[in-house]
Amino acid sequence: MVYVVTEACVDVQDKSCMQECPADCIFEGGRMTYINPDLCIDCGACVAACPVDAIFYDAELPADQESFIELNERFFAETETPKSGRKAGKISYDVDAIAGLGPRKEA
């Protein structure tokens, strides 16, 4: 895993990160986006594009968000995804921990 999408993305899915990603490695799930670790080229373009600061380099994740490394990996292990996030469109699936979260509270 290189970059990781975290909880701040849940129910936001702005998709600016997808538009900026030159590797097309970001996929839209039911409630959040996920970065395919096998396709990510470690460029960081997605980080600057994210309006909610939901994307972190895996070694710089806040301690309370470290579980999202596994959640991002599980998304790709549990679903069939093409080689392109933008071409995939929305995949109506999230890993159980994301699907089970309550609705996002507005700040």
Describe this structure as you would to a colleague.
28% of the residues lie in helices and 11% in strands. The protein contains 5 helices and 4 strands, in the order βαββαβααα. It has helices at 16-20, 45-49, 67-78, 85-88, 96-99, and strands spanning 3-5, 26-28, 33-35, 55-57. It has a two-stranded antiparallel sheet. Strands 2-3 form a two-stranded antiparallel sheet.
**Global geometry:** globular
Order of helices and strands: EHEEHEHHH
Count of helical regions:
5
* N-to-C span: 30 Å
| Biggest sheet, spatial arrangement of strands | 1-4
Look at the structure and give the mean pLDDT: 92
**Can you summarize the main beta sheet?**
2 strands, antiparallel
Number of strands: 4
Structure class: alpha+beta
Q: Helix content range of the residues, please?
A: 25-40%
What Rg do the Cα atoms give? 12 Å
Strand percentage = 5-15%
Task: Extract low-pLDDT stretches.
Answer: none
Structural features:
two-stranded antiparallel sheet; 4 strands; globular; 5 helices; alpha+beta
